[in-house]
Amino acid sequence: DAKTTQPNSMESNEEEPVHLPCNHSTISGTDYIHWYRQLPSQGPEYVIHGLTSNVNNRMASLAIAEDRKSSTLILHRATLRDAAVYYCILRQKIQGAQKLVFGQGTRLTINP
Amino acid sequence: ETGVTQSPTHLIKTRGQQVTLRCSSQSGHNTVSWYQQALGQGPQFIFQYYREEENGRGNFPPRFSGLQFPNYSSELNVNALELDDSALYLCASSLTGILPYEQYFGPGTRLTVT
Question: Taking CA atoms, what residue in B is nearest to A100?
Fold first, then answer.
């Protein structure tokens, strides 16, 4: 499986932007880049995804490098509720299935 | 719209026993995936079911098996439990054929094997 590498932890202040980096140097041409986040005692929650172009939604923005070997999740104005483990994930096709390949994740702490 | 639910919430079993975990998919979803999440790790893909057939499997031995029912609910069965099977088991439902293949996760079942 292609692998993602993220910092173990990051810290930011409330109402400031947060940039969460991810390296995926072995990504294949058909792998989608997804980001999920996981709050304590909950299952992962979808944040955003992309293939080649930068993407925006109501939760965040995703910036994808031109060579697709890295990406950055951008939270524009962090709130305390954004404190979670953020996973950079490759969505790969295996046999007939779409599987999510999770990395170790980045634990994001937001200071008030 | 009901989200993904899982039962039981917690479970304690003894090595060598068998366990069945249950998942109810989000309304209208036809695909269910199961993941194992060890403490402090990211979830690992076990397998996926679509139209009651397994259509993809990760690196898990055959003692991990599953079922998907016509109402799209699902079971994960694990035989001959080992201590390393202690983990949070997550199911995720999605709608195959409709982008972006977003998977909706349940809260998980915490399995402890002693």
Answer: B45
